[in-house]
Design brief:
Jelly Rolls, 3 helices, mainly beta, about 280 residues, globular
């Protein structure tokens, strides 16, 4: 839970705060309680009823539930009594291969044209052989609401080293082309919406040896979580790494590139518009 980078506290559209990891910019402003906040509150109030459990009782960095020490409280993207299972019924497990495959997920409430109090959520685990890492690319985001914190819907992609951290959340067409490489051989994906159906398209594959964010592309398999249809299509082109961030437009409205101010922020948020791309 956090203020967004602009939201109601910014009078000129400039970001009030900028994350060190810029891929977290759209995650700021989330209304959801994070795993670390839950862990912090349990420690603060001395909820140590499960101290008799071994340190690694819960998988994937979860911790024993003080209300029932035989069950665990899990980081987002993990579930089951011991945090070693995919949560929820919606979604599935996907196997990453050398060539790109494509996941097309439609999540949201049918026959509604407004936000609701309940979220429809789907969970996916993209798995690779042990020791391999996974590359995930956002190829499409259709009919969604773009807000700070992706509070009404979006996709969360967990590729970081610390499994307890919230994943990167995206809910804007301006994030299309964003590519992430995982730290482990499994990537939890969460899609969610509290409103009408949103279509989220991701491509995924095993990271080629010696490759950061590019490589050979082939036809891809698209899986629709709602009706199970599978089709084959060519993948969209990969964007270059030097790209403006979604918040760049708001920054340049008040401080154009030619104005010698906020240069460090501009280099991070508007490298393409301001001619600051590095070779």
């Amino acid at each position: 839970m956090h203020y967004g980078p602009t939201g109601s506290v910014s009078r000129n559209g400039l970001p009030v705060m900028v994350t060190k990891d810029l891929d977290y910019m759209q995650t700021l402003g989330s209304p959801f309680i994070s795993f670390y906040e839950t862990l912090m509150m349990n420690k603060h109030y001395g909820c140590n009823q499960c101290s008799h459990k071994p340190p690694n009782y819960c998988a994937n960095d979860g911790f024993p539930n003080p209300n029932n020490c035989n069950k665990c409280i899990c980081p987002s993207g993990y579930g089951g009594p011991l945090c070693d299972e995919k949560p929820g019924k919606c979604g599935g497990k996907l196997k990453a291969e050398r060539d790109f495959q494509q996941l097309v997920d439609i999540v949201g409430h049918k026959n509604t044209y407004q936000t609701t109090e309940d979220f429809e959520v789907c969970y996916y685990w993209i798995e690779a052989p042990p020791g391999q890492k996974i590359q995930v690319r956002l190829d499409g985001y259709k009919n969604g609401i773009s807000t700070d914190g992706c509070r009404h819907g979006g996709v969360e992609i967990k590729t970081g080293k610390d499994k307890r951290h919230t994943g990167y959340r995206f809910c804007s067409k301006e994030n299309i082309g964003k590519t992430l490489n995982s730290s482990y051989d499994m990537v939890p994906i969460t899609t969610y919406s509290d409103a009408w159906p949103v279509t989220i398209t991701l491509s995924y594959r095993i990271v080629p040896s010696g490759t950061v964010n590019s490589g050979r592309q082939s036809k891809t398999t698209a899986t629709n979580s709602r009706n199970g249809t599978i089709t084959t299509r060519p993948p969209p082109p990969t964007k270059t790494r030097c790209e403006d961030r979604p918040i760049c437009k708001a920054l340049l409205r008040s401080t154009p590139c030619r104005v010698n101010k906020n240069q460090t922020v501009k280099e991070k948020l508007c490298p393409r518009s301001c001619g600051m791309c590095r070779p």
